[in-house]
Amino acid sequence: MAYHFDSTHTVRLGVFDGNPGFISIHPANFASPFEGRDGFMSIAEYAYNKGIVLNETGSYKFGFYFHSHNEHMDTGENGVSESNYGFYFIGNQRLTSSFAGHHILDGFLQLSYSPVKSNTNRIYTGVGLVLKGLATKDYSDELGLAVGYAHLHGTIYQSERVVELTYKYPIGNHFFLQPDLQYVINPSRFDAATPNALVGILRVEISI
Description:
single chain; mainly beta; eleven-stranded antiparallel β-sheet; 1 helix
């Protein structure tokens, strides 16, 4: 549900089943939403749809999420399930519409915080730049550089960091290729020390 006060201010509210992915893992055990012991997930968000610097466009979102109960994932230190909640901020700002002559340069910032002790990742920060129009006149190609940082709890490392370089290029009007290169510092997926990892991905997108 969304309410637009005007072109600048928007409020959104969503309520979801506490574990919607269960049906994809166990399709034979279908149950109606909000049944069982998974509780519900709610998200409230305020969006300011206007740039705040350099007279350029932008958008800024402040959100709060609350998970009432999840027996499968959010378990407190005493083994009893507990509610989960947190806050997030997503900012996108156009820095210039005429970078290096005719390119567009955008920047973004992502922040999240959850004070619940059972969360492995309580603090996350991401920042990056996106350059558009490097090889196309309609700015449909995008070169992106980003850095992400996750502060961890209860893992072998106290933090995980990633540096990402990606380039999205259109082929025709409905087809995109996007190679993506990531360097992960202190991978924390496993309970043992893991060497830094270099990861390559190729995304294919079809727009209808």
